[in-house]
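Reviewer comment 2.1 asked that we show a complete input and output for one of the modelled complexes. We chose the iron/sulfur cluster case, as it is the one discussed in the main text.
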Amino acid sequence: MAITKTDFMRGMQCPKMLWLDKHKPGLKVIPPEIQERLDAGNDFGDRAMGMFGPYEEMTVYRAGTTIPDKKAMLQKTQEHLEAGTPVICEAAFSNYNNYCAVDILRKTERGYDFYEVKNAPEVHEQFVRDAGFQYYIMTRCKLKIGKIFIVIHGPDEDRPFVPVDVTREAKGYYKWINDHIWNLNRMQKQPEEIEAEPGAQCSNPYECWYYGYCHGETPTDDPNRIHTTDRM
Ligand code: SF4
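Response of the prediction step:
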């Protein structure tokens, strides 16, 4: 087990959430409207791959499944980096098994810029942290990263992909990521369930899909809860 971008963000919101993801994922309840937003986010991400013209996609699935084959993706990414492919989508990187897949890598004269795609009308701090995590992994993999952009969903549907430069802010998260990633690695492996008192973290920054398990109720019992996802 290691830490992905999603694991890191979920573990920072609540360590118990990360532990449940690894040990009791069957308790997760994703409301249908959230699943719809996740699907819409994935569709927006797929369309964004072509925003710079021709590209190579690194996604590889395990035979007969829709589960990403990370090992094959890592190898394919290395091949395209060595070949100097100008635009690489879903580029995979691993450092001590900590892993990320980057939406769009674009070659520059001195290295690569990268683009994190979000189906949202504006940049939220959580998006910048996501980008910071990817910067951390790629930097530790010795890839030279120049600029970092969040691609948001602009108002013009004919040209919906709007890059926002977050280079300074995202790179500023390097130490914060390093300060926590190893502890989260240890925590997710421990056999005993992590104890956490339900509180503000259950819906901030994102609604927790274990809400019903920890609060002893069904997910729709509280009409005041906010439904959000990181792919909206
Ligand atoms: S419901 Fe709250 S306490 Fe339980 S795992 Fe989620 S964030 Fe943590």
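Residues 5-215 form a domain with the Lambda Exonuclease; Chain A fold (CATH 3.90.320). We note this here for comparison with the apo prediction described in Section 3.2.
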